[in-house]
Structures are given as C-alpha cells and as structure tokens.
Amino acid sequence: MTALMQVENVGRSFGGFVALADVSATFEQNKVTAVIGPNGAGKSTFFNVLSGVLPPSSGSIRFKGQEVTGLKQHRFAHLGVARSYQITNLFPKLTVQENVRVAAQALRTRYNLVQNRAAFPELVEKADAALGHVGLHAKRSRVASDLAHGEQRALEIAIALVADPELLLLDEPTAGMGPEETKDMVALLERLASERTILLVEHKMKMILGLSDRILVLHHGRLIADGTPQAVQTDPEVRRVYLGQNDGYA
Amino acid sequence: MSSTSHAAPVPLGAPQAVGAPGVLSRWRVPLSIAVLCILPWVLPSQALAVNVLIYGLFAVGYNLLFGYTGLLSFGHAAFFGGGAYLTGMAIVHLGLGWFPAMLVGVAGSSVLAAVIGALSIRTRGIYFCMVTLALSQLVYYTALQASNWTGGENGLRGFTLAKADVLGLTVNLLDPTQKYYFLMVFAALALWFVSRVLNSPFGAAIEAVRENETRARACGYDVERTKLLSFILSGALCGVAGTLSAIHLSIVPLDALHYHTSSIVVMMTMLGGAGSFFGPFVGALVFLLIEDVASLWTSHWQLIVGIVFILFVLFLPKGIWGTLIAWRSRS
Amino acid sequence: MDLELILMQLFSGLALGAILVMVALGLTIIFGMLGIVNFAHGALFMVGAYAGLWIASLTGSFWWALLVAPIAVGAFGMLVERVLIRPLYKRTPDDPLLLTFGLGYVLVEAVRITFGTDGIPFSAPDALQGVVDLGVGYFPLYRLFVLGVVAVILLLLWIALEKTRFGLIVRAGARDPLIMRVLGVDVSRLWLLVFGLGVGLTALGGVLAAPMRNVSPEMGTLVLAEAFVVTVIGGMGSLLGAVVAGLLVGVAVSMTALFAPEMATIVMFALMALILLVRPQGLFGRPGVGA
Question: What is the ipTM of this complex?
Fold first, then answer.
C-alpha cells in the first residue's frame, strides 16, 4: 500500500475558535474512508483543509510525497485532488455537458485565447464519459439548473470525476436525497469505490458501513477514532459521543 | 437520481456551444459587420451612426467583463477616456502618426486596466464596483490636474486628423462617410477578436468563473488571474473605442473620463442584454436613439433614459436581446 | 507655516470628515443589513441638500430644514425600498445595485428640472455665522456646529445600536445575515427601517454640507465616490471603520490642500489604493469579508 495523502498534526482555528485540532491520518490508494461525527465536529473544516480551500493553521499535508500545505486551492486540483460539495455547487446556467467539459478543460488549458474550444474534442469525450458514468449522458444538452435535485448531485460527482482525480473528496453526496435517489447514488459510489481513493463525509450510517474500508470519527475538532467499520462501531468513545444521537445512525 | 428516465429525448449530434445557438451565433461577426455597414444609411444621421459604432464597441468591451465574467465595474470610463487621451496626447505631444498613436492608446489603456484590475480584484463581490468607481475617479482627477498634458477642464485639443494613409490608400477623414468606414474597420477587427475570445477555452473559463467562483476554483481555475486577464482584455477593447472616439471628435473632452461615461456603458449593456454578443450594440443603439429623439423636445432626455433603465432592471433584467434569445429558445 | 493655520486646516478637515461619516455610515448600515450597495446614496445626499434649501426658503428657518429634510428624504427612501428594491431581493445583489444606480441617475435629472442646472448658494443661519476663539485660534462657528451635530447623531446611534433590541439585531445582522433568520426577526419591516435610516443619514449630511459648498445637482457624484473610499478604507461593513475612516479621509484631504492643493482630491483615492495593497479588508474589516 502506498500513502496517497499524509496529514500530520493538522489544526485550524477561526479567531479563537478551534475547529480542527491536531489531526493526523494517512490515506492509502484505492481505499474508501468515511469521515463521521456529530454536527460541528469539524468535518467540513477537515474537508476544506484537505482540498486547499483553507490553509491549515498548523501541521502539514503531503500529497504523493509532495508538501502541499498552504498551496492555493486551484493547485490542489492540478495535483489530483477533486471534491464535491454538500450544497449543490454547479455552473447553473451552463449545459450539463459544458459543466463537465469546462471542469475537464481547467486541467488542460486555461488562458488560451487563440484557439476555438472545438479544437479540444477530447475534452468533450471526457465529459461525455463522465456523464455516462453517473447516468446523465442523455441529459447533457439540458441547462444544469433545470435538472432534478438528485440529477444535480450526480452532476456534482461527474464534475469531480472528469478530472480523473487520484483523491476524490465527497461531501455528503446524498444530502437532501429521497430513498430512491439515495439508492442510485449508493450504486454509483459502489462502482467508483473499486477503482478510486475516496474520502467521504456522510450522515447515513448504513451506507457508510457498506461502503467504507475505514472510518474516521471527529468530535469537537479532534480525531477520536480511526479504524475499520467494525472497530469503530464498538469503540466505547464513539458510542459515548453518539449516545442519544440516534439520528446519526439513520 | 433518475439515470433510467427517458423524459427528454435529446438528439445526438455535435455538441452546441452555450449561448445563442445556431446560425445567428455562428455568423455573428459577419452579421454585425453587415449591420454596421448599412447603419449610416438607415439611422437618422451619420453622426448617430458613428456614436453607435463607438459606444457599441465600448459596451462590447465592457460586456466581456460584466456580462461574461460577471464583474460589475463602474469605472470603465478610465479605459475609454484613457484610450482617447493617450491617443490624443501621443499625437499632440509626441507628434506620432495616427496608427502609432492608436497603438499607444490601446496599450496604455491595457496597462491602466492591469493596474486598476489588480487592485480591485483584491476585493470580493459587491465591493468590486465601489473600488472600480473610486479608482476611475482617481484617473479623472489626475487628468483634471495634469492640465499641461491633458488640457484640464477644457479637454485635449489640437490634433485634428485630416487624412490617414492606409496601405497606399488615402482616407479623407473630413468626409463623414469615409471616416465612418475607416473607424468601422477597427470596430470590426475588435468584434472579430471578441468573438474569438468568447469561443476560446478562455471564454469558457470566464463563464465558469461568472457562474460559480467556488466551483471554478475547485476545478483548478486560478480565479483571480482569470478575472484579471478578462479585466485587461475588457479595458483594452474599451481603449480601442476611446481611441476611435478621439480620432472621430478630434478632441478629448474631460467628460470621457467622468463617472457619467462609466454609467452610460453600464446602462447600454444592461438595456441591450448583458452576456449576449449582440446585446451591447443593441443597447447602445437604443440608448442613443432615445437621446437623439428625446433631446429634440426636451433637454432632460436623461430622465427618460433613467426611467427606462429602472423599468428594465425591474421587469426585463435580461435586456432587449437577452429577452429575445430567451423567448426564442423557449418556443 | 504656522501652527494656527495647520490647526485650522485640521479642524476643517474634521468637519469635512464628519459629513463623510454621515454618508458612509448610511451606506454601511444599508449594506450590512440588506446586502445592497446603494448607488443612489450620493444622489440622495444631493436631494437632502436641495430639500434643506427648499424647506429653508419656505419656512425661512435653517433649523426646520435641518430637522425636516432628513426625515422627509428618509421617508422617501423607505418608499423606494418598498416599491422598487423589494421585488429584487430574490435576485443577484447586482440587480438592486443597478436599480439604485438608475434611481440616482433619475434623481439628478429630476432635480435639474425642478431647481435648474446651476449651483445655488446656501448660507448658514446668522446665529452660526462668524468665527469663535478657542484659545488656540479662530474657527468658523458653522463647522464647529457641524461637528457638534454629527457628534450628537453618533452618540444617539451608538445608544440605539448598543442599548436597544433594534441595535442588537442590526449589529448581529451586519456581522452575519443568517442570524436574522435564527432570531426570527421580521426582516421586511427591519429592512424598511434600516434603509430609511441610512438614507436619512446621508440626507442629513447633505443639509449640513449645503452651507459649506455650492448646492448643485452634480454634488452627489463625488460624495458617492468619497463614501466608497471611506467604506473601503474603514473596512467592509464596519460601523466604527466608517467613522474613523471618514474623519481620516476628511483630515487627509484638508491637510493635503494646505501643502499641495492640486493633490487634495487625488490623495484619498491614493490612500484607498494603498489600503487595498497592504490590507485589502480595510482598517477595521475582518479578513474574508469582502477581501
């Protein structure tokens, strides 16, 4: 197993508020890791730090052996980290295909004023392939904001996937979905799980237990457990934190 | 996720560019040039046609930033006026010919745009418009004070161009028709350039930034640099418009740098339809037609323009052309 | 250059700055609560000056003008919020901005039609004419009065913001608009009041400024730019920043006028550019808000 990303003693505070404290973890290739914890546990901050949205206040992050702490967010994308968002975060007025194509383009050409977009047919092919992967190929000419909620979530994943990222960060991919839509999404994630390194924030326990190789539990910004789903489930500290929070196991 | 639904059958085929699809979009540059060619013959006066040409181009340049990149600037008079002043100053003080003087104007306004853009992009969101306005006022007051160079309140005078030699041909700039077509050549070149930029990968990048900065950044776009480049291109195009205005008027009024000039281009772009290729020209045409017609019976035509503008913001925020496109694609 | 001249100039800078504080505070309060940059703010300043002029000529009293004009213009502001701005809250922040910009354009022209395009002189009441000896030098009484009025308004605002429920909500909302929803505040009524208050403040600035400069339809344009400069320097959404930066800009302009008159207007824009370079969030702004 090779370590894809190493997080060492990472902390992040806002003013006096410590959102993340002294978290260390190593993420290995082709594993699915879930990050769980009650609301306000620091999951979002953790994701934002790992994807370069926020620089950590302390500690360091290495990706493929390279120091990436404090790099700008767009550099993370170029190194191979892609993410989705908890709140649907698309290019609403562009077509479904263009949403994905422009994402693929970011890694290929950004300041090219001279050529026509059509000179890069491989970007369209990539976009169509990613859309096929999430089952949106038939809707690729639609405007993104016209899609149903579940479809928008799938598009969200396609935008992240088209970069062919080595590390895929998924922030609550099933947020706001009904049972049917969730089932489709889980099927999609299962397909992805076999071939990608995925880090996942989720609230739906059953889904996490089925998908993950490993679970990290955050509480008040600290990492309180890190292990296989079985180990974490029986961890007394985790049980204590989640006691009375049955909604977490929904 | 309804990956299995077959609700909307979509015909297979070549992917279409976003925006007004079809013939109109593909032929937008030749079409614009054709319209510009007949403009002096269909409008009430040739003077109006020249103004539509110059302000239309000004609005096209502005639209690249406002309509396509999503940045609302209230300081674009700095680039229009800057282009005009620098062209005039290059002729008056440096004794340059018309073409090098034009280059000076466009290059100068690009540099000005790089400086103002770099400063204003440091602020996010709505503060952008405040900073662009304030910095353009800085340019205005600097021009007012540097009267040895700019002529101060009286504007820059004394550089009447009687003729221009182009590739062995002599254009008589005192003849309105010849002058119009002379200026139109540059406007056409600028339009062709804008169209190319919009079709380029960079054109897609600025639309992505406009649609969702956060996501664009996550995809790997350097949002600040993308905005800055768009700002510079927009400033350069407005500089071309300013340059043409200097050659057309043979003077540069101080008003070219005034807030009022920045306002006009915002209104024109909005009226015509921000974020559409033809919108800015339509807006310039409508704005100047209102001015032309209304000023015949009242000196307060700006009241009418202002009210029309407010009604557009309230009820037709997509502008004239944008609304037409929306109707067409719905039916 | 003697000390007395410098003191006088410093003092007139403070008076100038006090007016800017009124305008910038109005702008900041409106922005903090409604998330709208009121582009008609300069025009409403000008309308305030003209309203003062008109009321003074009707009643023959500057004091009525000072009292009634800001209230009347503030009420007009509330009407504007209700009728024109309200339909736009669901749209992007650019749309209310564009609307107020159009409104400013219309107001300037409407005033030109009503009062003519030429500037009108407006003199301070007899009781406030002349100079007063403060021991260190003679100062124009009217400017002292302006400082006094602004100080009283700031005190009243401070009490309203610190000691009342209304103030609590305004302060909380300026920091984080989401809090409003959590607190279950009647947002639409609050916004109406806040817009009226912000507009009233700038109109008061207009009335106060009228005797210190020519009243003209174009007087609002520079004021709008000045208010933006103050807001950027002071820090996005910071009320304290608006006060400090307003006075700072006033003094900077005034002192520059003493040494290099031609640079007087330019200096504040240069100051803003400098702030953007070294501290883009402004003196009192928090990083991440607007920068």
Answer: 0.91
